[in-house]
Amino acid sequence: SSIYADVQQGPAIEVFALTQAFRDDVSTPKVNLSVGAYRTNEGQPWVLPVVRKTEVSIATDETINHEYLPVTGLDTFTRAATELVLGADSIALKEKRAFGVQTISGTGALRVAAEFLLRQLKRNTVYYSNPTWENHHKIFADTGFTSLSSYRYWDQNKRQLDLEGMLADLDKAPAGAVIILHACAHNPTGMDPTQDQWKKIADLIERKKLFPLFDSAYQGFASGDPDLDAWAIRYFVDRGFELFVCQSFAKNFGLYCERVGNLTIVQRSGATRDQIHSQITLLIRGLYSNPPAYGARIVSKVLNTPALRQEWMDCIKAMSSRIREMRKLLRDKLVELGTPGNWDHIVNQIGMFSYTGLNEKQVAVLIKEYHIYLLKTGRINMCGLNTGNIEYVAKAIHAAVT
Ligand code: PLP
Q1: From the CB of 262, is ligand 1 less than 6 Å away?
Q2: Boundaries of each Aminotransferase class I/classII large domain copy (predicted)?
Q3: Catalytic residue among 251, 312, 333, 343
Q4: What is the mean pLDDT of residues 124-151?
Q5: Quick check: is 343 catalytic?
Q6: Which of 114, 197, 283, 306 gets the most CB atoms within 10 Å of its CB?
Q7: Average pLDDT of 236-260?
Q8: 294 C-alpha vs ligand 1 centroid, how far in Å?
């Protein structure tokens, strides 16, 4: 018999399975609220005009070739990415105690971070929020972390952040534990701590000697302002924490499949830079040798050219405004219909996702009877909504709830 005969079928990945089910569904109307990507008001993917323009200029630039990049990536990109997240006037940058390495998007940044933390810093304990992006667990478990726990984050009854629960759970974490924090636009709840709450979280992390790892997948995409979206990270850096930031340029540049990411390492002193850099170089060498150049060249050129950077800022404003508009429209429609419950959380949340509070049974009704696809936790992608389908979706939610 085949040597593969004993390979077991693995479970499906929910988001991808839902998107497939949506494609296979021949009914009209149908709505996909499950994917994690931006859509225009016409329901289409959006290539940012500034990205398209930059692609064309790179494609016709005769000085560009396809030689390998360095193992840690394109220098002009990592410097711009690190500066974008820490801020041009960051004390850590001025003191030369922060640097970035290019990674295979946000997932790759998390994986390289996890590998480094396990192998070099001998960490094996990680905490992530309950709920969180489902890949956090997988990345750290696959890397070899042996203690994986969640901390309370979302209060389903009040549909808000459970700060007390979060602090109580983190208080029990052993010193040195890696704490994954969503920099902004928490996935899947869309609920971020306030500045005051971040201060309390930082106090506890400092007191318990925990290691903050920021996952920044939505900078600029959340509020429309990259500085505002990086507030929590910069606050921690200003307080003197050593930390990691895992950056993705999938959402804020619409470069999903091009896998553009950056891992920023903030140290107490620049004296450790070369050693860390050399070890991360060896890690990446063994994982995939070196990163792809295409997307990094685009981001680098846009961030390093003031006029293009301004165009990009206008694009992220356009995306975040459309999302906010959809939040308001959906909340208003549900109120107008008199749908039982309070729907203010939809407008109070930020970023691409909303944790609607719909339960599994209600979700099943939406999928089966209305062909509206969403995760069984009730998470919806606000970008799947548009002026053409919002009425239909609101009425369906109303029917599923009543
Ligand atoms: N982290 C969070 C919280 C995310 O939501 C995502 C994407 O959905 C990522 C990281 C990384 O995505 P990518 O690897 O496509 O950059």
Answers
A1: no
A2: 29-397
A3: 251
A4: 97
A5: no
A6: 114
A7: 98
A8: 19
